[in-house]
Design goal:
Length: 429
């Protein structure tokens, strides 16, 4: 007879992680076996809503023995997150519009069911009904409203972290007290966060965030950084100076709206073991500079001629590559065609926000583009996007999309390739 116990524990965990917190809580009450499986999933992520902060503050006022009892499951917490309050401007699309657009607020989710009082040390479900006022940008508040938002003081925040020794991710950017918490982490957090891998941010540039990440450079694996000059721990430099200090970095998002000659290869040269790279640049770097940057990267790795046509795999750990550029130079095409492992690189997204597909073909030889598309079509998830300002209706999006499909048929690429074209008028697929 089939029993749930025969299913591998790892699969149980994966399923439970996908369930709503309420459902996981119900699983905890089914039996001792289910409780053992569900408790780690239930406490995996803690949301610091206003209600939860008040609840935690009340428990942190208890004596040490009672605190230890209340925070018994603290070692299971992997993520500490401040709930989102509304949609914000995505820096990834700043280049596509000459004038900023108004951002509409997302509709607030209503929760009709009341939360049951729990005997466990934390409430892990986001409570939007209590946070309509709590999760608002601080600059939009008057002093009286701001003072009503629940907050940890420095001592209680550090005490809370001490009960979560296995914390791997912190995302408090939406908190009204974000800078206050980050300042605490920058000065005293290293004593408590021994396994932190990701300190998230949802803005293009924030020097305090980078300063905090640098404090944990020996454990950080995920980093989002804006290209700028940083002053950290009496050190002064740009991200290319600081990135080699992050010894375990595997995932990086780098936004560049400042340095006109920065290339993909400048990043790969200092971070050769990346698994995920999201490179977003506002500048069209000349092919000469791209080739020079590529040669410089090769000099730090292995001796391969820059004009080599032999497929020599570089960066064998790279699994996801996301490029957002005005145009794709022949140097990038050469790298992606001849020096990437299409079995390892399972996701590639290329967004050219100042290019028409037909113009892109004209800038490169048909053989170069054919070899490029044929090789990349072997990648499991390939997304190719051209975004541009419409040329007075001389070429609409549908015509360009058809042009791309006809090209795929001509070069005998039958594997699905996701293609998107976008103008300032409308988006089509």
């Amino acid at each position: 007879m089939f029993t749930f116990q025969k299913i591998p524990v790892e699969i149980h965990y994966k399923v439970l992680e996908l369930l709503p917190k309420e459902s996981v809580f119900e699983c905890m009450l089914v039996s001792k076996y289910w409780s053992t499986l569900a408790i780690p999933a239930y406490y995996n992520t803690i949301y610091l809503s206003g209600t939860n902060i008040e609840f935690l503050n009340s428990k942190l006022l208890l004596d040490d023995n009672n605190q230890d009892q209340q925070f018994a499951y603290g070692s299971l917490v992997k993520s500490l997150i401040s709930p989102e309050f509304h949609s914000t401007v995505d820096a990834n699309f700043l280049h596509y519009n000459s004038e900023p657009e108004d951002i509409e607020e997302g509709e607030e989710e209503e929760e009709g069911e009341e939360e049951e009082e729990e005997e466990y040390f934390l409430q892990t479900v986001q409570q939007q009904d209590d946070d309509d006022n709590n999760n608002t940008i601080a600059s939009d508040m008057d002093e009286e409203s701001f003072a009503l938002i629940p907050v940890f003081n420095s001592k209680s925040f550090l005490k809370l972290l001490s009960y979560m020794p296995n914390l791997k991710k912190i995302d408090l950017f939406t908190s009204a007290y974000y800078e206050f918490y980050m300042t605490i982490l920058a000065s005293q957090g290293s004593k408590y966060l021994q396994h932190i891998e990701d300190i998230s941010i949802h803005a293009a540039y924030h020097e305090l965030h980078f300063t905090v990440c640098y404090q944990f450079r020996h454990t950080i694996t995920h980093l989002e950084v804006y290209y700028a000059t940083y002053y950290v721990n009496h050190l002064f430099g740009d991200p290319l100076y600081f990135l080699p200090h992050f010894k375990r970095l595997t995932n990086i998002t780098l936004r560049n709206f400042e340095r006109q000659d920065l290339t993909l290869f400048d990043i790969l040269a200092v971070c050769p073991h990346l698994a995920v790279l999201d490179f977003d640049s506002n500048f069209d770097v000349s092919d000469h500079l791209v080739r020079r940057s590529f040669k410089s990267m090769l000099d730090t790795m292995i001796d391969i001629p820059a004009n080599s046509t032999t497929v020599v795999v570089l960066h064998s750990h790279l699994k996801i590559l996301d490029l957002t550029l005005p145009k794709l130079s022949s140097g990038y095409i050469r790298y992606l065609t001849h020096h990437t492992d299409v079995k390892q690189l399972h996701t590639l997204s290329i967004t050219l926000f100042d290019s028409h597909f037909d113009d892109w073909i004209k800038l490169n030889s048909i053989d170069t583009v054919t070899d490029f598309i044929k090789r990349l079509s072997k990648i499991t998830h390939l997304h190719f996007c051209t975004r541009f300002v419409s040329r007075d209706g001389s070429l609409d999006e549908l015509v360009e999309a058809n042009c791309f499909q006809e090209f795929l048929d001509t070069v005998h690429v039958f594997q699905p390739v996701y293609y998107e074209t976008y103008s300032n008028q409308q988006l089509t697929y």
